[in-house]
Structure formats: C-alpha cells, structure tokens
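Risk register update: the risk that structure generation would not scale has been downgraded. Supporting records follow, first protein first.
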Amino acid sequence: MTDILRGLALGAVLLFVTISVGLAADRTIVLRPGAGSELVLDRAFDTVLIGDPGIVDVRARDDRSVVLVPLNPGVTNIIFVDDENIVTANIEVRVQNTDSASSAILALKQLIAR
C-alpha cells in the first residue's frame, strides 16, 4: 500500500513539474568562456538543476540571482525550482568560443553575399 501511495505522489509531482515547465518563461543566454554573467530572476528559487554541469557552473548569490560561469563550449539548460517544487525558470545557456562565433558570422555574411 505504501508503494502505491509513493507512486501516486511521485506521479503527481512529475505532473506538476511538467505543467510548470511548460509555463516557465524560456530565455537563451549566450556566454563566452572566461566571461561570467549575473542572472537575476523574477521569482525566488530554492533549487538549481543544471543539464550539463561541464558546460556552465551556477553560483547562487541570493534567492533571486546567480552568477553563470561558462566552463566549456556547448549548449545546456538551467532549471530553477522554488521551495514548493514548481519550476520558476528554464534558461537555455550557450557557451561559444569567440572564434567560432566570429566564424559563424563570417560564413553567414559570405552566404548572403552570393
């Protein structure tokens, strides 16, 4: 009986997290290795989930702001969850080398010039 109740509770939590992820405002932040950035959120958070901690590190300053520290090029996401386990923000983070960004711009300009 306890296992059934635990399963139902887990299912309810996953349902609410799924619904709240769909409602969270998505943003994309582009960073360069070695250039951190402060991120201030609209709502307080309790937990931070990092999709790929090898790409970006998150250092909490207080319950509404963090410092994003880019580690390696790549794309990941950061999910902020409040004390009631509701997702308050889902942020995509792209860490790009300056050279690769410049190369992409140059390639786009060349494509347009054709």
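Supporting record for the second protein:
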Amino acid sequence: MNQEEKSKKMGQLIAMCWADEGFKKKLLADATATLKAAGEEVPAGLTYKAVENTDKLVHLVIPPKPAELSEEDLAAAVGGYTSPALYFRKWLQETTSCNCAGNLLCDVFCS
C-alpha cells in the first residue's frame, strides 16, 4: 500500500467516526478490536489507542526513546530537524519485528 492509499484509508476512518457516533465510540473504547472488526490487519502483540482532539484539548504523542541514535539521526537533530516518527520508527525496529504492511496506522513508520 502506497502513501496515497494509506492517507485515503485514514481519511475514510476519520469520516466514519464523524458520520457514525457509534463507530467513533467503539474506536475510542477499543481501537484494536474495532480496527480488526473493520477488516484491518493488526499485527500480533500490537495495540492501538484512539484519542480525540477537541477545540480545547490537543494530544501530543511522545514516542519511546530509542536505545541508540545513528550519526545520521544525530546530524538531523543538530541541524534542527527532529521528527517523532524518526524516533518511533527506530524504537519500533529495535523492539519488534513489525510486519504491518497494509495497516493504515502503522506502516507509515515501518516502511
């Protein structure tokens, strides 16, 4: 699945939440089970949590700190460019054998 297809799937998921309050409540209560029930592939051992931003609450996602950064990662940080996805990807590669190809929420970080 390419980036355009992933973005489209994410947009469809958000649209479903906006159109169907029951679906949104299920997703917020148990995202992993709801995604599985919707036909999404969820790798074993991986759990999803859905949260909802409001006009008064915005969630910041802080990924786990990677065990080690490469020279390239350090150079990017020194240059002022840091990306949570960079650190999350590194952590995911170090801690799992992530095989989430086709999953709308994960393979952005694992591809």
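Residues 5 and 11 are 10 Å apart (CA to CA). On this basis the risk owner (M.S.) recommends closing the item.
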